[in-house]
From TrEMBL:
<dbReference type="InterPro" id="IPR003593">
    <property type="entry name" value="AAA+_ATPase"/>
</dbReference>
<dbReference type="GO" id="GO:0016887">
    <property type="term" value="F:ATP hydrolysis activity"/>
</dbReference>
<keyword id="KW-0067">ATP-binding</keyword>
<comment type="similarity">
    <text>Belongs to the ABC transporter superfamily.</text>
</comment>
<keyword id="KW-1003">Cell membrane</keyword>
<dbReference type="InterPro" id="IPR027417">
    <property type="entry name" value="P-loop_NTPase"/>
</dbReference>
<keyword id="KW-0046">Antibiotic resistance</keyword>
<dbReference type="Pfam" id="PF00005">
    <property type="entry name" value="ABC_tran"/>
</dbReference>
<dbReference type="GO" id="GO:0005524">
    <property type="term" value="F:ATP binding"/>
</dbReference>
<keyword id="KW-0472">Membrane</keyword>
<dbReference type="InterPro" id="IPR050763">
    <property type="entry name" value="ABC_transporter_ATP-binding"/>
</dbReference>
<feature type="domain" description="ABC transporter">
    <location>
        <begin position="9"/>
        <end position="234"/>
    </location>
</feature>
<dbReference type="InterPro" id="IPR003439">
    <property type="entry name" value="ABC_transporter-like_ATP-bd"/>
</dbReference>
<dbReference type="InterPro" id="IPR017871">
    <property type="entry name" value="ABC_transporter-like_CS"/>
</dbReference>
<keyword id="KW-0813">Transport</keyword>
<keyword id="KW-0547">Nucleotide-binding</keyword>
<dbReference type="GO" id="GO:0005886">
    <property type="term" value="C:plasma membrane"/>
</dbReference>
Length: 291
């Protein structure tokens, strides 16, 4: 395979400013075919601008962009048919049923998936005859995903897909995304939910002020795997906390000192959220260290 075909997305030196104010400020990115890549970052960091440039919906000021081997700014319907997009919110055609809507949109694609299979894949079989406007928020999102995958895309963009979902709906949705990824679809996900990124993404990119400031697997991001463990226990009726690179040795000392079972013992590593907040310059929840 050549470099051009082994990479689903290749971005170098991407820049975009609005009225002279940079929103994307020299961004580089590579996403491999079949990868689930999550783009994280605070409000206004430049995620939507970047993703819309990749989707071909927004122009750029500078930089090289190749998506499925083509420049989105110069690509036509054949390229677009290889891409699925699930936006933050969709509107329109609310008065027709799920079945009619999915069937209607299938007509726009050269090689659509079977509408009935797509409705089943997103778990909307029981809502087939329901009008779109009568769906719950989570069901509406499933319909959005159905429309996003209907064209059998090689590359799927998901923009904050589970905002407003209840926990069970999120788990179901994650299973759907994992099954798409398992089938080889490349997925670009923007999300504000760190657990979602951790659950779904092969790699995570953190964007701040228009640049990627960290990029790694969720368990290694920002040196997370090298971080010290946090040991919590109760002693003399008081909660105690200590950060340590050698938690096993600490627990052995505690067990010896306390004569066996250590009350309230818990050992944790910094969460992806702790690391993310540190990367974007926000202090994580203050940890009181008493040793
Ligand atoms: N059409 C526009 N015109 C002018 N400024 C814009 C426009 N779109 C975005 N911006 C600005 O560019 C910056 C980046 O915005 P962008 O929407 O890309 O951020 P984001 O990371 O997607 O944020 P969020 O997490 O809130 O969706 C922001 O400061 C925003 O105000």
């Amino acid at each position: 395979m050549t470099a051009a075909t082994s990479t689903a997305i290749r971005v170098r030196g991407l820049r975009k400013a609005y009225a002279g104010v940079p929103a994307v400020d020299g961004l580089d990115l590579d996403v491999a075919h079949g990868e689930v890549f999550a783009l994280l970052g605070p409000n206004g960091a430049g995620k939507t601008t970047t993703v819309e440039i990749l989707e071909g919906y927004r122009g750029r000021d500078a930089g090289e962009v190749a998506v499925l081997g083509a420049d989105p700014a110069r690509s036509g319907p054949a390229w677009r048919a290889r891409i699925g997009i699930v936006l933050q919110s969709s509107a329109g055609l609310d008065e027709i049923s799920v079945q009619e809507l999915v069937q209607h949109f299938a007509g726009y694609f050269p090689d659509p998936r079977d509408p009935d299979e797509v409705i089943a894949a997103v778990g909307l079989e029981a809502k087939r005859a329901t009008r779109a406007r009568q769906l719950s928020g989570g069901q509406r999102r499933r319909l959005d995903v159905a429309l996003g995958i209907l064209g059998n895309p090689e590359l799927l963009f998901l923009d904050e897909p589970t905002t407003g979902f209840d926990p069970e709906a999120r788990r179901d949705f994650w299973a759907l995304i994992s099954s798409l990824a398992g089938g080889g679809t490349t997925i670009i996900l923007t999300t504000h939910y760190l657990d979602e990124a951790e659950h779904l993404a092969d790699r995570v990119g953190v964007i701040a002020a228009g640049r990627i400031v960290a990029l790694d697997t969720p368990d290694r991001l920002g040196g997370r795997d090298q971080d010290q463990a946090i040991v919590r226990w109760t002693e003399d009726g008081r909660p105690r906390t200590e950060r340590t690179a050698t938690p096993t040795a600490l627990i052995a000392r505690l067990a010896a000192r306390l004569g066996g079972e250590v009350p309230g013992l818990a050992v944790t590593r910094p969460t992806l959220e702790d690391v993310y907040l540190r990367l974007i310059g926000q202090p994580a929840e203050t940890l009181e260290v008493v040793s």
